[in-house]
Amino acid sequence: MPRGKRTNYAAFCTECASRCDTLFKITKSKKADFKVPEKFCKVCRKKTKLKLKEEKHSS
Fold first, then answer.
1. By residue range, what is the domain housing residue 49?
2. Distance of alpha carbon 13 from alpha carbon 58, whole angstroms
């Protein structure tokens, strides 16, 4: 049974633009459906909001 394609989002720190995380979402759900998370950035040494950028579709 096919599960559909997943979209990978790379999460970048808004302060220093370093990559912090990777999010996987099913393509049926829209990008606006989930909140932009806050995560601890190792470079900035503080909790910052993330900017999401679509990477690729994995099958």
1. 6-58
2. 24
**Rounded CA gap, 16 and 35, in Å?**
20
**pLDDT at 47 (0 to 100):** 92
The dihedral region occupied by 20, where left means phi > 0, alpha psi between -120 and 50, and beta the remainder, is: alpha
In a domain? residue 37: yes
Total domains in the fold of the chain:
1
CATH number of the domain that 34 lies in?
A: 2.20.28
Q: Kindly report the average pLDDT of the chain as a whole number.
A: 78
pTM here is: 0.67
Buried b (16+ CB within 10 A) or exposed e, 35-47: eeeeeebeeeeee
